Amino acid sequence: GFNCGIVGLPNVGKSTLFNALTNTSKAEAANYPFCTIEPNVGIVEVLDKRLYKIAEIVKPEKITPTTIEFVDIAGLVKGASKGEGLGNQFLANIRNVDAIAHVVRCFSDENVVHVDGSVNPLRDIETINLELVFKDIESIEKRLQKVFKQAKSGDKKARLEVEVLETLKEILERGERIYPYLEKLDEGKRVVKELSLLTAKPVMYIANVDEEGLFEDNEYVKQVKELAEKEEAPVVKICAKVEAELAELEKEEKEEFLKELGMEEPGLNAVIREGYKLLDLITFFTAGEQEVRAWTIKRGTKAPQAAGKIHSDIERGFIRAEVTKYEDLIREGSMQACKEKGLMKLEGKDYEVQDGDIIYFRFNV
Ligand code: GDP
């Protein structure tokens, strides 16, 4: 599966958010640093109205949404890259995630201690980003030591890598993340991947506000949005406390509460959606009488590999994909009608699966 790590300084609301997301009480929210020691992994259902619209038509026995993983990562403090707090463990955990949700405290509350004494989202963001930057510089220097020797002895490939590493190091030494430069890196992409650099992962900022902040952006949120715009990173504004309360409620109470808050949906939905976008994921559906189900793939995945998500046998024995567009099914009202109108297309192994495709795979056993 694909996963998104929740990071941020201690006491910014990570566990509260994580609990709301997973609707469990596994991660213990507590008002002191280092509460969340082991990374907690939560499997979160991706809300997608299309799934239920398809089910209304197909009337299956079972409806199965797709999921995305969130990992609650232990609190980072200044100096983590040098092993402060649970620094090294924390950073190792980030290495294993595909994207980062960076929770930033944008609420004032005297009862909630701030590790640096005051609320200041830009300073907080910089603190975390710098730790990741330091760790990446360390990885690059280690690698440089190795390749440098090879380069000196005339190895052409090694010389090229040294060049790439130097370029990456320059970016990091300016205090910048690698991610915004990824597209331009060509050869560098491979190096970045091999080193699994922390700052090469896509980031979204989660501005954690108090209830008033939900109605109108406070100063903190404005600052975060301004910074994020420069970095071309998405921002999701939530109130983790409200989300935690919402997550406890039954459907009707929840709708009532949302109305009171003037919200159309829980903020978590936006977090999940942005996570999806950040990872460049799309959804396709399978729709049979037994089960209507949503599946997650990376954009650009070809039909056989998409089939492989369901079962490796289907990928191995792939013959073709019978593809109906979601909009067509909804408009025509049944699979049969789509078929009769020639809206069900037969696609081969080079077909790139599109978001919203409803697919029936033909395969040899
Ligand atoms: P973590 O260390 O980042 O995981 O932070 P926690 O989720 O444990 O939250 C730390 C403290 O801040 C807890 O006492 C939470 O109840 C409180 N908290 C979290 N989110 C909010 C919020 O949106 N508003 C307020 N006032 N307090 C919050």
UniProtKB/TrEMBL annotation:
Belongs to the TRAFAC class OBG-HflX-like GTPase superfamily. OBG GTPase family. YchF/OLA1 subfamily. The keyword DNA damage does not apply. ATP binds at residues 11-16. This is Ribosome-binding ATPase YchF. Keywords: ATP-binding, Magnesium, Metal-binding, Nucleotide-binding. NCBIfam families: redox-regulated ATPase YchF. One of its GO terms (molecular function) is GTP binding. It comes from the Bacteria. Residues 280-363 form the TGS domain. The keyword Repeat does not apply.
